[in-house]
Amino acid sequence: MDRALYLAMSGGTQVMNAQGIHANNLANVATTGFRADFEQARSMQVNGDYYPSRVYAMTENPGTRMERGVMIETGRDMDVAIQGDGFIAAMDATGQEVYTRAGDLQLTSAGQLVTGTGLPVLGSAGPVFLPPLDALHVGSDGTISFIPQGGDATQTTSIGRIKLVNTDGENLTKGNDGLLRTKNGLPLDEDNNIKLISGFLEGSNVNAVEEMTEIMELARRFEMNIKVMDSVRQNATASAKVLER
């Protein structure tokens, strides 16, 4: 009886963890460049200085879905989307190089090029800073061109390139902040074959219908575990009454 209660309890806990993964995916269905997380459950044996007679359920996140999202036309010069595979390199709060598909670029008051969430965008030589300007354009190869403040189209100047990288999805891991990092912690080399398209953003690759279906299925599993625990309680109560007689 105690085994049944433990299995139902651990199963319910892991179902809640799985719900968290799918709920996070669904919450980011409209987040630019978001990559959905996979979820799977498997049995895990309890090992120790005794006979391994207990097995519990474990939910894990085995990876991230790397399929491309839909292209959304915005017409904004500082919005860029990657054509095909690849990532834009940025820098997180700790100074580590991270990777994203979100190309909603912004300029700070200090002239620094950042992502929509405020992360510094990296160029070939580090973070990108721009002087006062009237217009900015990002080329298909990541080259940043601008018209100086008070200038005209004949004074268009190039100032480096956005660092674009590419690697197999298995070499990357996604953190709680939604950003991708290399598993070995080392930065990736720049890839000159990656192309950008200006005036577009890549949407999330989350399938809302699929996520809702999984959430409803997990809710039924959680209810089943609760019913098992309730049955164990009822059986324990009935057994106690028999012993009292």
From TrEMBL:
InterPro entries: Flagellar_FlgE/F/G (IPR020013), Flg_bb/hook_C_dom (IPR010930), FlgE/F/G-like (IPR037925), FlgF (IPR012836), LlgE_F_G-like_D1 (IPR053967)
Subcellular location: Bacterial flagellum basal body
Ranges where the Flagellar hook protein FlgE/F/G-like D1 domain occurs: 81-145
Domain Flagellar basal-body/hook protein C-terminal: 198-238
Coiled-coil portions: none
Entry GO CC: bacterial-type flagellum basal body, rod
UniProt keyword terms in alphabetical order: Bacterial flagellum, Cell projection, Cilium, Flagellum
Gene Ontology biological-process annotations: bacterial-type flagellum-dependent swarming motility
Domain of life: Bacteria
Database matches in Pfam families: Flg_bbr_C, LlgE_F_G_D1
Assembly: The basal body constitutes a major portion of the flagellar organelle and consists of five rings (E,L,P,S, and M) mounted on a central rod. The rod consists of about 26 subunits of FlgG in the distal portion, and FlgB, FlgC and FlgF are thought to build up the proximal portion of the rod with about 6 subunits each.
Family: Belongs to the flagella basal body rod proteins family.
Entries under NCBIfam families matching the protein: FlgEFG_subfam, flgF, PRK12640.1
Full protein name: Flagellar basal-body rod protein FlgF
Upper lineage: Bacteria, Pseudomonadati, Pseudomonadota, Gammaproteobacteria, Oceanospirillales
